[in-house]
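Hey team,

Filing this mostly as a record. A colleague (T.K.) asked me to run one chain through the structure pipeline before their review meeting, and I want the input and output archived in the tracker in case anyone asks later how it was produced. No errors, nothing strange. Just documentation.

Input sequence:
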Amino acid sequence: MEINLHPRNVKIVGVPMDLGQQRRGVDMGPGAVRYAGLYDRLVQLGHKVHDIGNIPVAGRDEDDVRRERWVETSGGGLRHLGAVTAACRAIYDVASACSRDDFPIFLGGDHSMAIGTISGMAAQGPLGVIWIDAHGDYNTPETTPSGNIHGMPMAVLSGQGHPDLVNLGAAGAKLRPQDIVMIAIRDLDLQERIALAHSGIIVYTMRDIDELGMATVARRALARLNRLPRIHVSLDMDALEPTVAPGVGTPVTGGLTFREAHLLMEILAESGKVCSLDVVEVNPILDDGNRTAEVAVALIASLLGQQIL
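Output structure:
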């Protein structure tokens, strides 16, 4: 049995949310990751683990969601704005109530849930964010080609977007650009790409990883955030190569290999600064034998201290 020398008080929180995008099935992601053995894996590492269950989220077929399929804004539209806002408010309440001794793992669900998780964790004090994703999720209502809120959380958390989302929990931006590092980016919308290039956020694309290597990228990301006492990791499983993690709604070829993803988690674990984690966009309907959820569990274990030797 593997024993972690730095046991944590881990809280597993399910967020069965599929309102931020249009493909069905991602709301079953928390169940798939649990089924893949997350609880037992973390207990074997010596952590104290408490699964607090799922945060209630409106189903897409409920009346309030049907009435809000598309909310017009000055520059475009947002799908399910009211229901997403309500869900993120509930997520915020859980995240902000976590003790500094807790290590919450939020299992999604689509990536719009990060508006709630990161806002809640930032309410506890200065926070850096490492965003691991094929996509920048930096669209606004004015730039989105789809109206899907899962493509907007980083813009919202930076203070741009619909006021109901931007002001969730507290008014205004929850993160400063210098406190955000993105890793594995390789698919950006045109206007999103322009905005992100001028944002002040450090972005490591897959080309950067190819040229520099994952170890260098991971250590540079940590050096960028070294002045901050706490780091939240937000992992979208589509950051990985689709042959490694096929069960995602928006797969993009050319992603992280199995070992690159593990090396990133291992180096982040060694920093001792990671305080919380999102794992999002696991869609068991699109998966192959729950393989993506199993990879997610393995990566969570690496972030929480599992080592080869």
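Quick notes for T.K.: The domain at 12-303 is CATH 3.40.800.10 (Arginase; Chain A). The CA atoms of residues 159 and 173 lie 4 Å apart.
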